[in-house]
Design goal:
233 residues; mainly alpha; 9 helices; 55% helix
């Protein structure tokens, strides 16, 4: 209870409310189960999920110390660039699809026109200098992070590329980079969403996941002494 109450995301979202859903409170536990059930070695996450992964590691280590080696203790993998993407309209706040302002985030199924409009309306500043400075230029820094994550070009190289140029060309290129990344994903989505193939993929994945999860669950129950003991004939 104490650990879950100390989760930063829970505190942030519960602040000022008289009540919150139990799902918000127990989410890190569900996340831990989803990771540990599948003998996960490495978990790539954004910076905001690091605390949840640390809880997952603690749960696994405590269980293993008490009942013997059962769960794989996962390693946390946070990307050097793009670990935390910020809102396009409030660049000091994390980007979220639940934001009431739809211009603050890019959806996976946004059209190229929508993406372009959102990026072009992103909050920057009046300097007109493309430079990475999270404290003084959070909006520009966020766009540089998005651009770098989509193209693999370093932020330093992007700063040099747009030296002496305004935000107009820069924002257009950021929008193009996002569109190019999402286009093949959207095309594949359209191929699958109404096809029989999607059901086959989901059924096959569910069967594979259940096989791994049940094996881990049996192992955990046996370690705790909850497994069924067959009598010797």
């Amino acid at each position: 209870m104490g650990e879950l109450e100390r989760m930063t995301q829970f505190k942030d979202k519960a602040e000022g409310r008289s009540a919150v859903s139990s799902a918000l409170f127990t989410y890190p536990t569900l996340m831990a189960a989803d990771i540990l059930l599948y003998d996960t070695d490495i978990v790539p996450v954004g910076e905001d999920q690091k605390q949840h992964l640390e809880l997952t590691r603690d749960v696994a280590e405590r269980f293993n110390n008490r009942f013997g080696e059962t769960f794989v203790v996962p390693e946390i993998q946070i990307p050097e660039v793009g670990a935390r993407i910020m809102s396009l309209q409030e660049p000091t706040k994390k980007m979220s699809k639940s934001d009431e302002n739809v211009r603050s985030f890019v959806s996976m199924l946004d059209t190229p026109k929508q993406i372009e409009k959102k990026i072009k309306s992103a909050i920057t500043d009046s300097e007109g200098v493309v430079k990475f400075d999270k404290e003084n230029k959070p909006g520009v820094s966020n766009l540089l992070t998005i651009y770098s994550s989509c193209t693999g070009v370093t932020i330093e190289a992007l700063e040099a590329k747009y030296e002496g140029k305004g935000y107009g060309e820069f924002k257009q290129d950021v929008a193009n980079a996002v569109i190019q990344v999402l286009q093949p994903i959207q095309e594949r989505y359209k191929e699958l969403i109404d096809s029989d193939m999607l059901d086959d993929i989901l059924d096959e994945g569910a069967e594979k996941a259940a096989c791994v999860a049940n094996k881990t669950l049996r192992k955990a129950k046996k370690a705790m002494g909850l497994g069924r003991v067959k009598k010797k004939k």
